[in-house]
Write a structure and sequence with these properties.
single chain, 119 residues, mainly alpha, 5 helices, globular
Length: 119
């Protein structure tokens, strides 16, 4: 994965490479309040990788955070996600709009994940 791709208008930062330093630097620019969560997840991923003698926890960590950064670095995508999440958190689950909001949350996350895995 490289940082080069066709950028959309309004992207806050280029898509980072899927390395810890690049992900951390991008997160610091688009959602610095989440750096402690990033570090805790990184520590957990390394612990799990060591315990299970597998790189899968590290890869899962990278995909999770690349997806989170992808959403945040694209203001239109982030706005869609926040609007859907706000609706999902305020509507009653019996309200059909709740399912619509949850579907939109999933669609945004799938779009972001596809963007970081397609390069």
């Amino acid at each position: 994965m490289t940082a080069q791709h066709a950028e959309e208008p309004g992207e806050l930062v280029p898509r980072p490479e899927m390395t810890f330093p690049a992900l951390r630097a991008a997160l610091a620019r688009v959602a610095s309040s989440r750096l402690a969560e990033f570090q805790a997840d990184r520590d957990s991923a390394f612990t799990a990788a060591t315990q299970h003698a597998s790189f899968r926890p590290i890869r899962a960590f990278q995909l999770k955070w690349a997806t989170e950064i992808e959403i945040e670095r694209r203001p239109a995508l982030a706005a869609r996600y926040r609007a859907a999440l706000d609706a999902a958190n305020t509507l009653d689950r019996a309200d059909p709009r709740w399912r619509t909001a949850m579907d939109e949350c999933m669609a945004v996350r799938e779009e972001a994940r596809a963007a970081v895995t397609d390069d």
